[in-house]
Amino acid sequence: MQQQIDKRIAEGVDPEQASAQLLAEKQPSGEFVTPQQLGEMALFLCSDAAAQVRGAAWNMDGGWVAQ
After folding, report:
1. What are the respective helix, strand and coil percentages of the chain, to the nearest 5?
2. What pLDDT score was predicted for residue 61?
3. In terms of C-beta distances under 8 Å and separation of at least 24 residues, what long-range contacts does 23-29 make, across chains too?
4. What is the CB neighbour count within 10 angstroms for residue 5?
5. Assuming Cys at both sites, which of 4, 13, 48, 65 could form a disulfide with 8, CB separation 3.0 to 4.6 Å?
6. pLDDT tens across 11-67, in order?
């Protein structure tokens, strides 16, 4: 993702605008995943509530790979 942003910056686009453009084009949820959200997922996976989770791949990407 950073390479895509950097390419836009090299083309003269403002860094914040480059991120916003990429987000609008590629991210169905319209927002980037936050460090707090990632931490909360890690806490869940380490909790008793996830004791039966096995062999699962959980994407926390706002739907990016689902496109």
Report:
1. 55, 0, 45
2. 87
3. 26/64, 26/67, 27/62, 27/63, 27/64, 28/62, 28/63, 28/64, 28/66, 28/67, 29/62, 29/63
4. 19
5. 13
6. 999 999 998 888 888 888 888 889 999 999 999 999 999 999 999 999 898 888 887
The angle formed by the CA atoms of residues 25, 26 and 30, to the nearest 5 degrees, is: 85
| Residue type (1 letter), 19 | S
pTM of the model: 0.63
Which pLDDT value is given to residue 7?
Answer: 93
Say if residues 1 and 25 touch (Cβ distance below 8 Å).
no
| Identity at 6, one-letter amino acid code | D
Instruction: Let me know how long the chain is.
Output: 67
For helices 2-10 and 15-26, angle between their N-to-C axes, nearest 10 degrees = 130
